[in-house]
Amino acid sequence: MELLSVNAGRARTVDYTNAPSGMTGIDKRPVAGPVRVEAPGPAGASGVAGDAVCDLRFHGGADRAVYAFAREDLDRWERELGRTLDAGCFGENLTTRGLDVNNALIGERWRIGEDLVLEVTGGRIPCRTFAGFLEEQGWVRRFNQSTAGPGALLRVIEPGEIRAGDRLEIVHRPDHDITVAHLHRAATAERALLPGTLVAAEWMESGLLALARTYAEKHGA
After folding, report:
1. Which residues, in sequence order, are CB contacts of 218 under 8 Å at separation 6+?
2. C-alpha angle 204/22/82, rounded to 5°?
């Protein structure tokens, strides 16, 4: 398992985003050389140095400091869409190879390079900005329903520097069976699954956790 690229984006103005600022950092490109990754703090943005996060309602912060997507899943989308998809084009900070990102457990920890340790908190919920950037018809629905999976959101447990080519290893797996893919399905297509995901509440991204708790309370689960 390895890190194919570390990707960062600069803020730019767009007319398809519903972000209050009208800005987005979704257009991420591979970065040459070492990149520092550290926890941005509760009011921070990206955990990746030099990476812009413009809409803090849905991106960035401690629970969403880093976003990872598998090269294998980009390849699947290339075949389906009939277009080239370069590393970073889904707005991911880390493009991986050899790691089953979508079947990672919530709370699973990855070590990348010598020092960096990240913890899986959930999956990416696609937004209007993502759809506008790719210019694909019905993109939000297609992305949510695809077997390619949503990719993983991560928090920083131990900071460090990383670069393309670094080894990636799983160093901890919690004792439950809630995967990124399962939590994403619960949050988007099968809400009845949400109460069961609360066994992973300790590690879940705050927005997904709030959704699961609200559903469980409303339905008495």
Report:
1. none
2. 70
Other beta carbons less than 10 A from residue 216's beta carbon:
15
Paired sense of beta strands 94-97 and 66-70, if any:
parallel
- How far is Cα 35 from Cα 26, in angstroms, rounded to an integer? 18
Q: Please indicate, yes or no, whether the overall pTM of this predicted structure exceeds 0.85.
A: yes
Cβ-based neighbour number of residue 81 at 10 Å: 13
pLDDT digit string (tens) for 201-211? 999 999 999 99
For every residue of 93-104, DSSP letters joined together read SEEEES--GGGP
At 20, the pLDDT band (50, 70, 90 cuts) reads low
Give me 184's structure tokens.
Answer: 């994403």
Contacts of 216 (CB under 8 A, 6+ apart): 194, 195, 198
Distance CA 70, CA 102 (A): 8
Distance set, CA 114 to CA 7, 51, 117, 169 (Å)? 19, 21, 9, 11
- 152-184 per-residue burial string, b: 16 or more CB within 10 A, e: under 16: bbbbbeeebbbebebebeeeeebebebbbbbbb
